Amino acid sequence: MNANQQAPLILSVETATLSGSVAIARGEEIVAALAGDSGDSHSNTLLNDIDKLLSEARIALPDIDLFAVASGPGSFTGLRIGIATVKGLASTLNRPCVGVPTLEAVALAGSESTRSVALMPAGRGEVFAQLFSVSKEGFVTALDQPTHISPRRLLEKYGSLEDVLWCGDGAIANSALLEKGRIAQQVSNLATHVASLALTRFRENQVQQPDSLQAIYVRPSDAELKVQ
């Protein structure tokens, strides 16, 4: 662990979205960040992206104090790749890790708001959604549970809220429907916000051991739905 216990060196991985991203933070400072390519599979690029980022930051992997990963919801395959990679690295180096709900990171990326609805595409025109409040200091509080929902049901559930901030790629994709409220700007590197939330958990002594990391799927996979 670094001498400054309040400024751990964090490697953050986000593979919940199609493009994905990775970041290195020293405490609150983002040292380096890299956005992925939505046309490439995370299984082909993630380790190379991590290696490239470490090289760019001139940091050796054993120097990392804490590993963080977006734990879902999101792409089923992407989540499994990201979580398995973080588990492997943290286990090998005997480091703690943190699983950060993806929608929580999406809400933080949208900035301060008393009512932030974080939205991610869930396929077939539907979205993953959850309501949060985000403080000026960057504390994110869940106000309900994550759900898998159609745009019509989304409006029924959240459309009457006053001063709502719609966040994430799911908001941008459905911007024509979201007439009430504001839409946050698109964020190119969600891993930086995963790192910020991981730092908060580190300071609150809420880190995990690698074998306790679990994905948050919210809905069954397409394969499971076919079986049903």
Helix % is 25-40%
User: How many β-strand runs?
Assistant: 11
In whole angstroms, the N-to-C terminal distance is 47 Å
- The CATH class of the largest domain is identified as Alpha Beta
Work out the count of structural domains.
2
**What is the H-and-E element order?**
EEEHEHEHEEEEHEHEHH
What is the CATH-assigned architecture of the largest domain? 2-Layer Sandwich
Q: State the assembly state of the protein chains.
A: single chain
Number of helical stretches of at least 4 residues: 7
Q: What is the averaged pLDDT score?
A: 91
Fold and architecture overview:
This protein has 228 residues and is of the alpha/beta class. The protein folds into two domains: 9-102 and 189-227, ATPase, nucleotide binding domain (Nucleotidyltransferase, domain 5, 2-Layer Sandwich); 109-183, ATPase, nucleotide binding domain (Nucleotidyltransferase, domain 5, 2-Layer Sandwich), CATH 3.30.420.40. It is 32% helix and 27% strand. It is built from seven helices and eleven strands. It has helices at residues 42-57, 76-93, 102-109, 151-158, 169-173, 191-203, 222-227; strands at residues 9-14, 21-26, 29-35, 66-72, 97-101, 113-123, 126-134, 140-142, 147-149, 165-167, 182-183. Strands 6, 7, 8, 9, 10 and 11 form a six-stranded mixed beta sheet that branches. A five-stranded mixed beta sheet has the order 3-2-1-4-5, sandwiched between helices. Helix 1 packs across helix 2 and helix 3 crosses helix 6 (191-203). The longest helix is centred in the middle third of the chain and has 18 residues, at 76-93. Mean pLDDT is 91; it is low at 222-228.
